[in-house]
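Write out structure tokens for 2-succinyl-5-enolpyruvyl-6-hydroxy-3-cyclohexene-1-carboxylate synthase.
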Amino acid sequence: MRLFFAMAYPEGLVDLIDNLHQQGVNEAVICPGSRNAPIMLAMVRHGGFRCYSISDERSAGFFGLGRALKTKRPVIICCTSGSAGLNFAPAVVEAFFQEIPLIVLTADRPAEWIGQWDGQTIYQENLFGKHVKHAESFKPFQPNQLVEKAMAFPQGPVHMNVPIAEPFYPTNGEALPQIREPQAIEAHKTPELDTDFQVKQGASLLITVGQRPFHQAENDFFAQLALNGIPVIGDATANLPAECQLHHDLIWANEVNLPSFQPEFHIHFGKSFVSKRIKQFLRTYKPTASWLVHPNPIGKPDPFQCLTRVVRAETISVLTSLCQQTLRGVSAVNSAKNRLEAIQEAYFKKESWSELAIYNHLIGTMDSPNSEVHVANSLAIRYINWTENTFTQSEVFSNRGTSGIDGCLSTAIGASQQTNKLVISLIGDVAFQYDRNALWNAYVGANVRIIIFNNSGGGIFGILDGAKDLPELDEFMVTKQVFRAKNTALDAGIDYFEAYDWNELHQQMQHFGEPSDRAKILEIFTDSAVNTQELQAYMRLFKQ
């Protein structure tokens, strides 16, 4: 085949992009720039990619993460040279710890200009360090391993740095270079899996479930185990069935009961766990055996500090085996559930105007198979683990890989492109303001609903032991602020609603979830001091 390489396209670049497409990559989030223009043009003019243009690299990275979260396929995020790639870092590390496949393409200066004080030039090779599964520099016509590395278990982000010399732009009418013969594509290999899942007969068993996507077949097994008396505990991000909703963070609040909860056998499924109490409990009251179920984890993650075995297997295989065994649960955990439910029922009968009560009301109103919920970090993700009402029909997502507030809204906007369901973002005022560039693009769909809890600052610091009594609390931790979302909504062409009391909230919620031709924001205003008082009073009920 005769080859013609236009000067605007580095030799072999178009072949790289086509090779990625051959391997099933068909989406790219592109940040505007000059140095990365050849990469952008190669993808846009290829015709096989759905390309999104997002100006803010930090938001773009999380938007791409949201896309990969929903499609289960690698998504390209692409930027120009210099500090632009560093702004991808929060999304890249989140993808690494959530095991989400991203392909990061960063344009760069040619090697001879690195370290020469040339503009927009930094050291970009290995830019993300240990937080990518694979990093390489672009070499023409070399078989790329990006998709294979991103999709091999555990999945995660990969990085290719692409040095590009001028000129960046093709001449008028200049076509893409012809593509060489397709390169050989290496299929990723599934690791050899374990087959022995026998629990010691007669041992008391406790199952914990970390963040995981909704999976009906797995949930059927989890429900069966729970109904058979095995405590199955997980945060809202575990997307467990109603039978497993134990409100563990509240059951474990009374330290007097902790010794009776100690299991002889512990099995953990999924990834990270929000509840600090469970982690501290298992670190103190260690089981004789503790398993982590994961096909091929990076390293040997042991958040409970009692790991005795990594079971390299798929969750469904282990659950199938467990449901065929005669097992005994930790009975004291199940006994505590009835008392807890009575306390919650009595407390939530009074509707105080506090975030805790409002969250409880909204969960009961919004939980539906026709919606999915993206919960921001800090207090938001904790409230939904403490309320009486729980999400059992809506799938719950959250950036719990690194648990940062950056990019929570951008992830939800990216994910919203893949569904006709209502995509509901539950987010605090600081997290919203930090990521409001999530709305600075053309992809905020009519199915997006954003609920902002505005308590004029970082409310979580008012309940943290040690932090809440510091004289520097308000200025340097809570970071009191007076910003509202109204002008941001106006700029983005989003319908805006607000509520200062129960009457206004009930009125706004009558229409908030209805179909519309525009996205909607509901901003709920509360008093941070009242929120803290109510939450502390609520928690005391479970410590008695």
